[in-house]
Amino acid sequence: MKKLLFLFGLFACISLTFGQDHILRGFIYDTENGEPIPFEKVTLIPTVKSIGITGAITDVNGFFSIPKLAIGTYLLRVEDLNYKNYEREINITKKDGITDIRIDMITPDAKESFDVVISAETKAKTTEVLISQIKLDKKGIERVPSVGAENDITAAFSVTPGVVTTGDQGGQLYVRGGTPIQNKVLLDGMTIYNPFHSIGFFSIFETELVKNVDIYTGGFDSKYGGRISSVMDISYRDGNKKEFGGKISTSPFMAKLVLEGPIYTAKKAGDGAGSYVFSAKHSLLDYTAKSLYRNVNEGNGLPFNFTDLYGKITLASGQGSKFSFFGFNNNDNVAYTDIADLNFKQSGGGMNFVLVPSGSPIFIKGHLNGSRYETNFNEVGAKPRTSSIGGFDLGFDFTYFLKKESQVEYGINLNGFNTDFITYNEAASKIQIQN
């Protein structure tokens, strides 16, 4: 523990070695729901021609930072086809220091029209070298054809170059010759040991909540240590901070429910707010398969059944710092009448945070979480066999923004895991292996 605290203090103190040129930073939010807007282009235009135009692109948390600004007056501009153009005058009166701002983007009326502008995504392609990396959001996932009435992230995996699945959609993933165990799947920084259900068509993820997906099939950063084949980093959005809402949908395969809303709202513009979001999915195959697949499993239909639960609470300040607490539970069951029963259980929870320290040029992110995956196999005439794997993860990430949209990232990570395997030999003697 002492070593961990020492390293944390060391990384935090590194910020003192960087020059304290003036920094303009802040967050961009959607006025309708209070959600931060990721990958938005911010342009800063000086009134003096001798100073060059600069800018930045928001990260997945909607945060941007423009360092090393000279004294003067600037026009800050944000242009997006989905929102009204935003302009604001910025005055830099001293060489050193930090100016924090908040930008609230307003959705335009249907009758309004805008000029076509270069998006942040297009601009990012000229400033970032993305080797074997694919970025997706909710809209990108919805454009991919999928099985059933609901779009699923498994469809996006299936059409990713270098990825081979064991089924038409979903199932085990083989990325560029690697095995499924060599893939790392993260949900808000938490390890997901099995992202797919037993039937293979659906993942445990809720498309309605997806904010961003980064799929790396090679060349991933050192912060994604622990796997050698691929990394799938999935981020969920927060709940609506302005008003209550929800969605109910059903299909022959499953039914789902999504609820979200504010815990407390901002009393005035720029104040903090809290929100929650909850989702539940349950398969309907045990009800519909008897009619749809009458000749399967002796007339009992498909033997698959699953339930997914997810919840998240977010407490955010008006300056952009926030704490999120989340948890999930997945339950899969494959039941062959009078033959065998196979059950998969996966659960986990944790918290993550974003800190924007006043007077410091460092942007801090952190997480603490744990997850566990269990399988139980009950065969007629035999004793039950079980296996499980679980672990925890603690991490801190620090980002220092440089000029011309460059940045330095460093951090620390501590994790651990344990396994437990129980089976029986031909003499019915118990064999247990723990690690």
CATH class of the largest domain equals: Mainly Beta
Instruction: Note the gap between the termini.
Output: 22 Å
- The total tally of domains equals 2
Count the DSSP helices: 5
Runs with pLDDT <50, length 5+?
14-19, 122-127
Element pattern in H and E: HEEEEEEEHEHHEEEEEEEEEHEEEEEEE
Instruction: Look at the structure and give the mean pLDDT.
Output: 83
Strand order across the biggest sheet? 15-16-17-18-19-20-21-22-23-24
Q: Which architecture of the largest domain does the CATH hierarchy give at level 2?
A: Beta Complex
SSE blueprint and pairings:
Blueprint: H1 2-13, E1 22-30, E2 41-46, E3 54-57, E4 63-69, E5 72-78, E6 86-92, E7 98-105, H2 120-127, E8 133-136, H3 138-142, H4 153-158, E9 163-165, E10 173-175, E11 183-187, E12 190-191, E13 210-216, E14 230-236, E15 245-250, E16 254-264, E17 273-283, H5 285-292, E18 304-316, E19 322-336, E20 340-355, E21 362-379, E22 385-401, E23 407-424, E24 430-434
Parallel strand pairs: 1-7, 11-14
Antiparallel strand pairs: 1-4, 2-3, 2-5, 5-6, 8-13, 9-10, 11-12, 13-14, 15-16, 16-17, 17-18, 18-19, 19-20, 20-21, 21-22, 22-23, 23-24
